[in-house]
């Protein structure tokens, strides 16, 4: 009987304990930005790992949510694996939650069922609904159960673990660089695993070597100084909502290609190895179209994984005056679009924001970083405000790193089917900070189901994915990885 | 001493009483759609006119706000003037009111001052702030003071008055046709005066012979069945906010010209007499640009009055997911634009909405009048919902009607400066219904200041404009108008 067999037997018998503990963690409001609420999450996370014998530390920088660090195993002869998870979640705001976001609710299909107790059967297809259930408290729960399972079976850790549990990922990790630079001595590892994001759409385990980066642009176009009666002035007064529409339409064509000058120029094209890995991935598009509720991709016939190799331009929100029953017959005073740009390898956030600014300026706009003054209103027919938000850069670890095959093997054993190796995930996690500052290869190991409603209402984790996470951590904890050199030279404990 | 001299002396001494009465009327919430609140307004309006000896009737149709009708003077030898006013107001919702919309507040500049009492001075430039102060309770207040002033001076009415006070104008007058058809016998007049809208931007009195009509289009474009994580799916999933922007941009060019096929075809071009009247109007554009807070019109250098002769396409609201601090990193599930189309003479509302629909269809959209089904989502890449709202048609009374010169003369005497004759107002009032059903020439006689913030926060009436209204009604009540034939044949009491 292998270690994994023992772990599976353990979690079938005792997994309900882990589920109960997980539900307790999900009951804590963890909306990003809310530092007092996030401190309560940090305290509980530290407590749960301390109970397993880990040495935990809650670090705080001024104005930041805590960073929870710690170690489990400190044998200098063993390699060290770093585990990054973020315990904060997206705002729970959007309407449409069927059950409150911080009242973890287990469901079999549409039916709410109680959490299982000792001896109760547990179905892999049941789902636990709560903000953070998938993104990103799931790996914490999985790791806790994995450690319990190994202890119960008397298995020895083949590696040391170092933890980096962030509380600001959903805010764009504004203090992560500072934390890592300040505490890098406590965060030495041979490899960093970023446990975030979903597994492959087919349900296959996956090892992801990169992420897209992120920057945001909030764009406001100004019309009259205040809303005007659309009868008296409509057709004569400039309409900022129409102008915003024209600007956005000028940024991306109906063919899905961004038409901002230079938008694709800095992108590092996929390498031959990456293209080969992409070609190996099974097609998912037909299945996704049905699941996600649309008939064709933005670029009809395109493959999702191919599109992720290039920067995106996504309008994530629009607002001007009111629509529907609240609409009034006005020329709006301003119109705002919130845009997120996912960066591909090679893109610099500040540079990309600059390209958007230059695009506006080429169309005659005076582009401000604040509301216009009366004088600017009098003298500039085209006025816009651009607020840029610089997130993290994209990052792609080389397919040639020896640890890649080791991780794919562990994921294959844990998942019971061949793990897929993806050159990049679509989402953005601060992989590049860890790679740069901690000088170790970073690899994303997701466990959540792909249809987890991440960032939206009714976020959920399929229990089968939680168990996959348990098995994956158990496999990683009990197999020695190959020693590797980080991108910036030798890494690991000094 | 002329009748007007008497009236002016009266209102200087006793105008405070009218102001107090006006404030009482403005203290009643009159937001359109709220029938119980509107009934309270109707009751008070009827009571105020009954107190002046008018015979008033409050009429109600199922599901409609009341129509207040009445007569003041019933001498069959005298001509009859109809006075239309609407007592409902726009929703008071928009943020930015400095004082509550239904707590009428008198201000000298930015300073709140108490309502004047007997003997207190009253400045023409003071303003009374409240929803409805200008649009459109002001003519009611002015008419009440005019009747009081004439009574006090012992002047005899040269004309009979018939009243039509509507409670649903800001909702698009959904029952006005029914009311007029049902009660046309009580609404016989030789001329109908529509007392609504602002005077000329220069402050000159004006007589307006037409209005633009109105129709609305609410347009929703669909993306994924629910919001998607913009990292995982942005650049691959279709973005409804961008598509909506592209659609809107395809409806109107940067030159301000609507590019929907056939959009201008049904418009009756201005007649030679109208072109001459337009040419006579003083330029206001430079002054307006400064007041309204923008540097150039939508079509730079265009004249406001010229633009009003053609239908408009005005985006009055936009919404998709969220912007600002509430923005989430999603591909929105849908995006909505609320558009109002002001109609020019010749345009039919249903036809214009049909042109928008055809425009969408030509771009490949399946256009629905409801949300798409799952099956439609699976089979149609381009999905939109179009909800059309049919308002009233535009209407322009001929410059050759004999009553036009009579009204211009009264307005000139009341205003103390040459009245302007405008072929059309930019706004929409149900002039065509009165003209068609009541078979009499209809002319708009506005009294409010043009900078009254109509439909927006901080709606206000300049007191000088209230007094102009008093003088105007006094002039009209004491001068016999020429007998005219309505557009459909002889009109007036049978």
TrEMBL record, chains A, B:
* Pfam families (alphabetical): M20_dimer, Peptidase_M20
GO-annotated molecular function = metal ion binding; peptidase activity
The alphabetized list of GO BP terms reads:
proteolysis
This protein's record includes keyword Protease:
yes
Please list the coiled coil stretches.
Answer: none
Q: Which InterPro entries match?
A: Cyt/Met_Dipeptidase, Peptidase_M20, Peptidase_M20_dimer
Q: Which UniProt keywords apply?
A: Hydrolase, Metal-binding, Protease
Ranges for domain Peptidase M20 dimerisation come to 210-363
Protein name stated in the entry: Peptidase M20
Q: Which organism is it from?
A: Virgisporangium ochraceum
Instruction: Provide the taxonomic classification.
Output: Bacteria, Bacillati, Actinomycetota, Actinomycetes, Micromonosporales
